[in-house]
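Exercise: predict the fold of this chain.
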Amino acid sequence: MNVLSDNFAMFREGFIGTVELTVLSALLALVLGTLVAAFRVSPVPALRVFGTAWVTLLRNTPLVLLFLAVTLGLPALGLKGWDSFWLAVLALGCYTSAFICEAIRSGINTVPVGQAEAARSIGMTFGQTLAGIVLPQAARTAIPPIGSLLIALAKNTAIASGFNVTELGSVQKTLNAASGYNIYVIFLWIAVCYIIITFTISGLFRLLENRLAVAR
């Protein structure tokens, strides 16, 4: 019995769910990670404290615990009506943002301090200096680790299957419960789907890295 052909619609739905979860969580993580990285290098002490607290808390919190905090904590605070998919995006995006923040901050640290000082000397603000001078150069160093982090994010989406989100992990759970299917064949097809996603991310970031290297 062919697991893939018999359950192609289920695999397709799970694959699309994982891709959507990965893309939306990655976008949230990139925005938050860049913002928090800016906070961590900001001249404003309160922003630096907030950025440090954000990174320290999320990097040292297990992802499953963060999922529980989001899915159970937000409704308890009165924020009800959120779909489980968007709660998963929030948990994955916030968690990954802490690691992306550190990758970007490491890239910022490779930019010579003199460039920021020169920008300030001609009247540029901190925000203008960061966006126009520092971050474009920091991106060349930060792109490879960010690519690795987003690959890890794609694999972390499997945790969402335990919180009523339709993705590849939920397909595996459903088929494992069905009779007549070889569990190893199920795992093989699920692994192939994840490999397609992770290889696509790796290829995109390799192209981006080469593009930035040519522009250097």
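Check your answer against the key: DSSP finds nine helices and no strands in the chain.
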